[in-house]
Request: fold
Amino acid sequence: MIPKPENGSIPSKPPSQHPERREIYMTILNTTVGRNTSIVSEVYREGEKVVGFGKTDAQPLEGGLLFVPLPDTPLCF
Reply:
């Protein structure tokens, strides 16, 4: 991951050569009922070895209400 330039242009160097690049671990969850979220953590390395992860940022669960019809009783989650 590299930061986007403030003026919105394309970075001048490829990601592998950018001085401000960061490695992240991203998990994206999409459900069959239209709900989704993403979880992101920065990865810390010493050489080729992973030595830790940064603070985990999770977006709130997005999507509409989920209705589950039970016999004569609609429930809303």
Summary: The first strand starts at residue 24 and ends at 30. The beta strands are 24-30, 36-46, 49-53, 57-58, 67-70, 73-76.
